[in-house]
Specification:
Arc Repressor Mutant, subunit A, D-Maltodextrin-Binding Protein, domain 2, 3 domains, 5-stranded antiparallel beta sheet, 11 strands
């Protein structure tokens, strides 16, 4: 028995007339009658009582019609949901992010995506940049947010935002009174930085900036970026952080622009061959978010 035969049966059952059912189905009446007869033969029992001028369902036909309607509803729902999934309107996406994004931008981005696609499940994982890349390659993360550079031909990238780097100082530090600080002024300071394996590209970018300023930083403590803020406030040393961490508003720390205005970027990264419709829709929201950031920066 196939779905087509069931639809023929249901149409005849609803019309109680083979001629009208044939018109609805856009087929001739004789073939429709033969199809119903073939279905009854396959099932081994009659579906219609043809003894009267009006076609009536047998008790078995009544039961089959009830279940057939449920089946059609399930099939229609499955097709509808599959179509939504093909357009990225339902499904699931795993998003990874650095700790700094959690306090500047992630909430706004997720709110915008959920407003457009409320049926999509968004799962989140806070991961260091290198772990994000590893998880994307493993297929456990669909899209991540990392600092450049990303030198990986298997990954596609999209610029989310460009932001200045800032010097982070303990409150009361001698340099805190300056409105803008040259990196060279930090040559003799103790530094609190994140471990290189957490984000090799970004770490190396900072090291190049320090070398260009004429020194190699003396790192006395390593920690994740959010912990760096607390350690600087506690007087363990100074650091250089993305300006997005201003939103933490941590007491005991002073953030100052750097002479020359060195920048860092935030990139969205995903596997180049990932054809997920949900991912494509998420990227559209990321691009809108990036455009909004650029416009805000220009004003």
């Amino acid at each position: 028995m196939d779905l087509r035969h069931l639809r023929y049966f249901a149409t005849v059952a609803e019309e109680r007339h083979f001629g009208r059912a044939a018109e609805r189905l856009h087929i001739a009446q004789p073939p429709l009658s033969r199809q119903i007869q073939a279905l009854e033969k396959e099932l081994g029992f009659a579906l219609f009582d043809r003894s009267n001028r009006r076609v009536e369902l047998t008790p078995a036909g009544v039961v089959l019609l009830r279940h057939a309607r449920k089946l059609f509803e399930a099939v229609d729902l499955a097709v509808h949901e599959a179509k939504r999934a093909s357009h990225g309107e339902s499904g699931r996406i795993m998003v990874s992010y650095p700790s700094s994004l959690a306090y500047s931008g992630l909430t706004e981005l997720l709110r915008a995506f959920r407003a457009r696609f409320p049926q999509v499940e968004v799962a989140l994982r806070e991961l260091p940049p290198q772990h994000q890349v590893d998880e994307i390659h493993a297929g456990r993360v669909d899209i991540g947010f990392v600092r450049p550079p990303v030198d990986d031909p298997m990954l596609a990238t999209e610029l989310v935002r460009q932001e200045p780097l800032l010097v982070a100082l303990p409150e009361g530090h001698a340099l805190a009174s300056k409105s803008r600080i040259p990196l060279s002024a930090l040559a003799r300071e103790s530094f609190v930085l994140f471990p290189r394996p957490r984000g090799p590209g970004y770490f190396d970018h900072l090291m190049r900036l320090f070398r260009d300023a004429g020194f190699t930083p003396r790192i006395v403590q390593e920690a994740p970026q959010l912990d760096i803020v607390s350690l600087v406030a506690a007087g363990f040393g100074v650091s250089v952080l993305p300006s997005s961490l201003r939103s933490l508003r941590r007491a005991g720390i002073v953030l100052r622009p750097i002479v020359g205005n060195p920048q860092t970027a935030l990139l969205a990264v995903w596997l180049r061959d990932n054809r997920s419709a949900v991912l494509e829709e998420f990227l559209e929201v990321v691009r809108a978010f990036a455009l909004k950031n650029r416009r805000k920066k220009a004003t």
